[in-house]
C-alpha cells in the first residue's frame, strides 16, 4: 500500500495515459458517480487535454469545462479498450467513467472529483507551490519554492517538503529520500538544513528522471533492492552505510505517515526509538 501512494511522478504518468487515451476524441459516455455531479453529462464534448498539476489531475473539455480529480492515498484512473474487462476494483468504488469510441477511462475511489470552469482552475490548484514537473520549471520556480519553504523556518523539513503549498509533487517516498541525500533527518528545522537549494534542485531532478519510469529510483541504480536509499527498507539497512534504517511517524495528527531515515548518514533530531514501533510500521506498511 505505501509503495502505491501517488507522488507527483505517478500522477504525471496517470495524466499522460489519460491524455493519450482521450485527448482529441469526443466523449460518448460520461458517468460521474458523486451526488453533486450525478446530472452532469459531457457526452458530445471533445476532450482537449489531461494534465497533472502537482498531484492534481485536470481534464479539460471543449466548452470550457475542467474535471478536477485528486488520487490522495487510494484513488486511481485506469484506461481500458473496448471489450476489455475492468479490473480496478469493485463497481461501487467507481467514481467516474469517461468513454470515447475507442477507450474508456475509469476513476476508482477518487476522494476528490469536481467540475469547474477551465477559466477558474486556480480555485482548485491556485494554492500550489511551483510544480516540480512543470515543463517550464526553472530558476525562478526554484527561488519561489525556497521562499515558501523558508517562510516557516522552524518547521520540520520532512513536513515542509510534502506540503504542496511549498512545492508541488513531493510525496512520502521522495520526502524520506530527499532528507537522506540532504544528510538531515526529517525532523530537522528548515532553517538548519545546510543546503536547501540543493534539496529543491534534487527534488526537481529526481521527479523528472522518474517521470516516465515504471519504478521509482533515487539512487541511480535500477536493480531490485537498490533503487531507494532508505524508504521502505524497514527490515533492511541503509543502502550507503549498512546501518539499520529507522522509521517513525511524521505529520499532523491524523495525517501521520511513515518516514524512514539512516541514523548514521543523517544528522539532526529524531523521535526516541520505541520498542513497539517496528511491529506497528510493519502493519502500516503492508
Ligand atoms: Zn547510512
Describe the protein in words.
- By secondary structure, this protein is α+β, with helices and mostly antiparallel strands.
- It has 7 helices and 10 strands.
- Strand 2 and strand 3 form a beta hairpin.
- Helix 3 packs across helix 6 and helix 5 crosses helix 6 (196-210).
- Mean pLDDT is 91; it is low at 277-286.
- The structure holds zinc ion.
- Residues 238, 240-241, 243, 262, 264-265 line the site of zinc ion.
How would you state the average pLDDT, rounded? 91
CA radius of gyration: 20 Å
**What is the strand tally?**
10
Estimated helix fraction: 10-25%
Largest sheet: 4 strands, antiparallel
User: Would you list the SSEs in sequence order as H and E?
Assistant: HEEEEEEEEHHHHHEEH
Number of helices: 7
- Which overall shape is indicated by the principal axes computed on the Cα atoms? elongated
User: Bound compounds, please?
Assistant: zinc ion
Estimated share of beta-strand residues = 15-25%
Distance between the termini: 6 Å
Structural category: alpha+beta
Uncertain runs: 277-286
Instruction: Trace the largest sheet across and list its strands.
Output: 1-6-7-5
Amino acid at each position: 500500500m505505501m509503495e502505491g501512494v501517488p507522488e507527483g511522478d505517478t500522477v504525471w504518468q496517470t495524466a499522460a495515459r489519460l491524455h493519450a487515451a482521450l485527448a482529441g476524441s469526443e466523449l460518448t459516455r460520461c458517468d460521474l458517480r458523486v451526488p453533486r455531479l450525478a446530472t452532469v453529462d459531457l457526452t458530445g464534448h471533445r476532450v482537449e487535454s489531461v494534465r497533472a498539476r502537482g498531484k492534481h489531475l485536470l481534464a479539460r473539455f471543449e466548452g470550457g469545462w475542467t474535471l478536477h480529480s485528486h488520487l490522495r492515498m487510494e484513488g486511481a484512473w485506469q484506461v481500458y479498450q473496448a471489450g476489455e474487462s475492468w479490473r480496478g476494483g469493485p463497481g461501487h468504488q467507481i467514481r467516474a467513467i469517461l468513454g470515447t469510441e475507442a477507450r474508456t477511462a475509469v476513476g476508482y475511489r477518487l476522494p476528490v472529483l469536481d467540475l469547474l470552469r477551465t477559466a477558474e482552475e486556480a480555485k482548485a490548484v491556485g494554492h500550489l507551490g511551483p510544480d516540480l514537473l512543470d515543463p517550464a520549471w526553472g530558476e525562478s520556480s526554484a527561488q519561489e519554492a525556497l521562499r515558501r519553504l523558508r517562510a516557516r523556518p522552524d518547521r520540520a523539513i520532512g513536513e515542509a517538503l510534502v506540503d504542496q503549498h511549498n512545492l508541488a509533487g513531493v510525496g512520502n517516498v521522495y520526502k524520506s529520500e530527499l532528507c537522506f541525500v540532504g544528510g538531515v533527518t526529517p525532523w530537522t528545522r528548515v532553517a538548519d538544513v545546510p543546503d536547501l537549494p540543493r534539496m529543491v534542485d534534487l527534488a526537481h531532478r529526481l521527479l523528472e528522471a522518474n517521470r516516465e519510469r515504471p519504478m521509482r529510483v533515487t539512487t541511480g541504480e535500477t536493480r531490485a533492492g537498490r533503487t531507494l536509499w532508505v524508504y521502505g527498507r524497514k527490515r533492511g539497512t541503509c543502502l550507503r552505510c549498512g546501518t539499520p534504517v529507522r522509521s517513525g511517524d511524521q505529520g499532523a495528527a491524523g495525517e501521520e505517515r511513515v518516514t524512514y531515515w539512516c541514523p548514521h548518514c543523517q544528522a539532526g533530531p529524531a523521535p526516541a526509538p520505541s520498542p513497539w514501533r517496528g511491529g506497528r510500521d510493519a502493519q502500516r506498511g503492508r
